[in-house]
Amino acid sequence: MTGLQKLLALVSASAASLAIVLQPELATAGWMGVYAALCVGLVVTAFLSRRPFSPWMTTAIGAVSALGAIAIIGGLDLVTPQTGFWCLVVSAWATGWLFIDALSAIESRNRTYQMLLAVAIPVIFGVWLLILWEVNVRGFGVPQVLLPPPSAIGVRFAASIPTLWADFQQTFLKSVLIGYVLGCGSGFIVAILIDRSPFLQRGLLPIGNLVSALPIVGVAPIMVMWFGFDWQSKAAVVIIMTFFPMLVNTVAGLTASNAMQRDLMKTYAAGYWQTLFKLRLPEALPFIFNALKINSTLALIGAIVAEFFGTPIVGMGFRISTEVGRMNVDMVWAEIAVAALAGSLFYGAITLVERVLTFWHPSYRS
């Protein structure tokens, strides 16, 4: 066992025992005694074993971690949070940390198993953050207007699915995707033209730099005046935000090939377009995908902010600004959750395509 794992096991057992001593009413729940006993067992195992945790032991730690999560959530309804309860929270968090650390230490040659671990670890970590969010907000009595607990957000999310879906369609499926495709596509085409013409390289790049520095809060109202209140004005803002990152990254990527590679293409009597498609564009793919990933988040941010300056009565930005005025903070967080989920899935999809097309790149070689 590593020193960190021993320390986490010791903290978990000590804090669980201290919780029962400081707040005896916690012991009235049967699961509390079982959890404390299992934490002590983890300490004994951690200090007696010299080998890394086996898969079975890691699974057992996960079960103890889940029991700790149940303990702190159930404790909110069982007792008034005092020092003993917060010791229990520290114990459960240490157990959860130990479980994640044990999962991270697992090494396997099975690619499917490694992919499952790569997904499971951040998911478990995220779930624990939500649990701590719930416990701290309810335990300290934070007003829901300031920060609602995840449970309240989840209830509001489930009750507002039709509204959230309509907002998602308006903002993401129309403004973001259309603006993203047009902005990235035009940036890529202009980069090819700049590479072909030194005149454009000296004239357009400074102008592109100027456009990229324009504040979105200044551009969005102008786009609304030009293109109206529907999704077209938001797509125009997204185009402006995504154009320059694609332009700069593509221009940089087209210069990634070295002189020896270009000389080799000349010895094969390859022309400009043959060299471009067979050498320079493949070498530029990591740069292009870097721009695509950056733009996947910029596009969503741009569309949501643009909806603050005028939109039909639908859309993520419209809903956020409206519900904040009504003090419906749980609905605001539900919209934020939809935006975060959509942005993460969009980014993940681009990353998967990148892995398929740039498998030859050193960063993806096993």
Task: Please specify the SSE layout and strand pairing.
Elements: H1 3-22, H2 30-48, H3 55-78, H4 83-104, H5 111-139, H6 150-159, H7 161-196, H8 198-212, H9 216-227, H10 231-253, H11 259-267, H12 272-306, H13 316-325, H14 329-357
Helix pairs in contact: 1-2, 1-4, 2-3, 3-4, 3-5, 4-5, 6-14, 7-8, 7-10, 7-12, 8-10, 9-10, 10-12, 12-14, 13-14
Q: Roughly what is the average pLDDT, rounded to an integer?
A: 84
State the total count of DSSP E strands. Answer: 0
Oligomer designation? single chain
Strand fraction band? under 5%
Please give the alpha-carbon distance between the first and last residues: 27 Å
SSE series: HHHHHHHHHHHHHH
**Low-confidence spans:** none
Largest sheet, in brief, is: none
Descriptive overview:
This protein has 366 residues and is an all-alpha fold. The protein has 2 domains: 3-142; 157-364, Orthogonal Bundle (MetI-like fold). It is built from 14 helices and no strands. Helix 3 packs antiparallel against helix 4 (83-104). The protein starts with a helix and ends in a 9-residue tail after the last helix. The mean pLDDT is 84.
Distinctive features:
mainly alpha; MetI-like fold
Would you kindly provide a brief summary of this structure?
This protein is mostly helical and 366 residues long.
